[in-house]
Amino acid sequence: MNEQQKYIIGLVIYPDMFHLDITGPHQVFSQIPNAEVLLLWKSLEPVVSSGGLTILPNTTFADCPQLDVLCVPGGGFGTVEMMQDEQMLTFLQLQAQTAKYITAVCTGSLILGAAGLLQGYKATSHWAFREQLQLMGAQVITERVVSDRNRITGGGVTAGIDFALQVVAILCGEDTAKFIELLLEYNPAPPFGVGSPEKASTELVQTMKKMAAPLIEASHAASKKAASKFPSS
Amino acid sequence: MNEQQKYIIGLVIYPDMFHLDITGPHQVFSQIPNAEVLLLWKSLEPVVSSGGLTILPNTTFADCPQLDVLCVPGGGFGTVEMMQDEQMLTFLQLQAQTAKYITAVCTGSLILGAAGLLQGYKATSHWAFREQLQLMGAQVITERVVSDRNRITGGGVTAGIDFALQVVAILCGEDTAKFIELLLEYNPAPPFGVGSPEKASTELVQTMKKMAAPLIEASHAASKKAASKFPSS
Asked: Any residues with CB less than 8 A from the CB of B205 and at least 6 apart, and which?
């Protein structure tokens, strides 16, 4: 690894996000030697996640330097709101012009998509939402972490850890990524082995889709609305 | 699952903690129907984790109701400090008298140990620290999640997710735990497969132990000091 290289990594946060989408990557990225990890929001006011965990941003969009890595988490209805939030979309578009890597975890990719940043790219998202990326011009890939040129996206929530380790390998080399994997004792043992729709029972998948239906529908509508505004359509 | 049952789950936080030790479990626990998840500290002032992520507590030790589940995370030198912090140890001992489950993730188990709460129990911790639990009367088990009566402990950092899903299964039944495992898309794919000392190269393990030596030594000294104060010794 190149210990002299300094990286500025920006993790966007917003109300009603799934915090593990971003706390997983934060724990990984903050182990990079010489990395500066920013938690970005419109203001410095505390941000309340969907589960109630409240995180303090440390940098506003207005004060954000040019990032090497830009990362957006997913969440609940707050994510749908962000898909239509001009201040958020403009910030992402501005940073994306010269950021080395433009990334998302979980339904954060829907926000990138709504900003027009996944048109023509392979990408993924949370399993219950990933098909919606097609509406915004992305090619959906059902892998846990998907890289296409400088776009890197992860699947639902816990995929952020796998995602972040892969980003570290790209940025700093495999030795650094392996060090962090061992440091965080990332030797997972899912107790039930039902963490993907392919592994879970049809009944469980259907129950979850039914419970999530209002959010899936709202997100679908926001995806269509966003795509209708793209210059190319 | 019993949707009527209400659970009060208390996650202790403190400066220099490894936040993923507690944000992983928080994301899992906050999905339990009718769970109240408290973030506990001495005051309501923001708590800065070892990686810089700043979390707001929502309940003070003084105002904490009797918990069903008490959980303590690990971290850096802040953990060693907490192993010797009378206010922390007294709080844990008081809650442990009637909490249904007394738990820890990563080196949080060293704090439980220092409070005398693991004497005679099987337990685990982060791989580089777990042998120290013996000094405080615990029997060290090298599994990712270890249960012994009402003590439940997880291995290093990312083990908190496996740990929390197992706790949910105990509290609410397997159906709820499976639902959360699928919701969080917990179908992990560690990129390098070196997340335990048994899987990593000897060189990598030695490099990490050398880098962590000052912390390992400080923690070892605190473990011995704590054990010397136990009534039984």
From this structure: A182, B197
